[in-house]
UniProtKB/TrEMBL annotation:
Official protein name in the record: Acyl-CoA dehydrogenase
Every Acyl-CoA dehydrogenase/oxidase C-terminal domain range: 231-375
Keyword Flavoprotein listed: yes
Organism the protein comes from: Streptomyces globosus
One Pfam family from the record: Acyl-CoA_dh_N
Domain Acyl-CoA dehydrogenase/oxidase N-terminal residues, every copy: 7-120
Length: 382
């Protein structure tokens, strides 16, 4: 595989690097899991949009740059290397937008995408329910037919960013599961401030309140906010999960930058005699590079007409375990630096990395997918 980029891609990289160097906030923004941090990250999205960097892979008409996968990966490398803020619009840009490109109407794309790109509408994903996580198809929240639309009833949970977000996309039961639980589901979007929506924040390990559960009692959704055909929700939702587990959520740029930061920490904080820690830092550098190469191989396959498909489960298991190991190494390196351990960037990152093997589909479920679909092993425990 030739990893040399053509001059026009390197020119794109230089443009991104230059813009980021001039625009990335000098000080770390407050956590986007707080009201204050959410607002600050929304402003950052607007600034990104002003430079046309908020959704680089979208067509130009919606505020993007029409960038291909190669350019997008290059942009991500530069983004994370520049220490730019986490993306509060990630659910919308990474999950809903690809779904709209594949299944939305032109009217929906024109109405929903530009405010998403500008950071004016931040989206939450409302899929999980108390009894429907890994087994998502057993969901019970329902949408009942009414004049010109639907009424939503039920409960959604574990919805990232929902406490401060504007809108949500979710799956609802609209018909009998005649030939299985995957039937009779409808994919639609709704307003988190509509009458009938109650948003209850769920405290995270660090106490920050952006995570939420949603209680829905007769929330009206007009027909124009149904994505795809009613009853086709499962097929539509599944077209986005590959991108959630794989490239869209965790580009290698993020881990290359984190591994570099870890290496810098080791240079300043490590006891050179501690070879065990040194080896773990080396593992982090090797892991980031391995993930980068694996991702470029996947990108090459996709560019030639392949799909992300079940292979994205390999990415998911890898990056979630990698992230955890990297942060544990950093905390061990910091040793007794108490302030850093309580509220520092590494400690915050570690707390979040604990959730990596759970969100975007648990690693147990990913391993089953790998076993069955990639290795051709017999069906397991389900
Ligand atoms: C930080 C975070 C953010 C999240 N954000 C969102 C969000 O924005 N929107 C949203 O809709 N959801 C979100 N989720 C929910 C997430 O998708 C679910 O937590 C996840 O799918 C697991 O579902 P569950 O919690 O119901 O656990 P369960 O499905 O009850 O699983 C419990 C345990 O049993 C195991 N298990 C279950 N079934 C099987 C099986 N068949 N074979 C083997 N093992 C099995 C699981 O792997 C797990 O270890 C988030 C979760 C976290 C932690």
């Amino acid at each position: 595989m030739d990893l040399t980029h053509p001059p026009e891609v390197e020119a794109f990289r230089a443009e991104a690097r230059d813009w980021l160097a001039r625009n990335v906030p000098a000080a770390l923004l407050p956590s986007l899991e707080t009201a204050e941090g959410f607002a600050a990250h929304r402003e950052w999205e607007a600034r990104l949009y002003a430079g046309r960097w908020s959704a680089v892979s979208w067509p130009r008409e919606y505020g993007g740059r029409g960038a291909d996968l190669e350019r997008w990966l290059v942009f991500e490398e530069e983004y994370w290397a520049a220490g730019a803020p986490a993306r509060v619009s990630q659910n919308g840009i990474g999950l809903l937008a690809p779904t709209l490109f594949d299944h939305g109407t032109p009217e929906q794309r024109e109405r929903l995408l530009p405010p998403m790109a500008r950071g004016e509408q931040v989206w939450a994903q409302a899929w999980s329910e108390p009894e429907a996580g890994s087994d998502l198809a057993s969901l019970r929240a329902r949408a009942e037919r009414t004049a010109d639309g639907w009424l939503l009833y039920g409960q959604k949970t574990w919805s990232s960013r929902a406490a401060f977000a504007d809108r949500a996309f979710g799956l609802f039961r609209t018909g009998a599961a005649a030939s299985g639980p995957h039937q009779g589901l409808t994919y639609l979007v709704f307003d988190l401030r509509a009458p009938g929506v109650e948003v209850r924040p769920i405290g995270r390990l660090d106490g920050k309140p952006a995570f939420a559960e949603l209680f829905l009692d007769g929330v009206f959704v007009p027909d124009r906010d149904v994505i795809g055909e009613p009853g086709q929700g499962w097929r539509i939702a599944m077209s986005a999960t590959g991108s959630e587990r794989g490239l869209a959520l965790r580009s290698p740029g993020r881990f290359l930058a984190a591994a570099d930061r870890l290496y810098a920490l080791w240079r300043t904080a490590a006891d050179p005699a501690d070879t065990a820690l040194r080896d773990r830092v080396a593992d982090a550098l090797v892991g980031a590079r391995a993930y980068e190469l694996f991702t470029w191989a996947a990108a090459a396959r996709i560019a030639e007409g392949g799909q992300a498909g079940a292979e994205s489960s390999l990415n998911k298991v890898f990056w979630s375990q990698y992230d955890l190991a990297l942060h544990e190494t950093a905390l061990d390196l910091l040793g007794g630096a108490e302030a850093e351990l309580i509220d520092g960037e590494w400690a915050q990152g570690w707390l979040f990395s604990l959730a990596g093997p759970i969100y975007a589909g648990t690693n147990e479920i990913q391993r089953d997918i790998i076993a069955e679909r990639l290795l051709g092993l017999p069906k397991g425990r389900r």
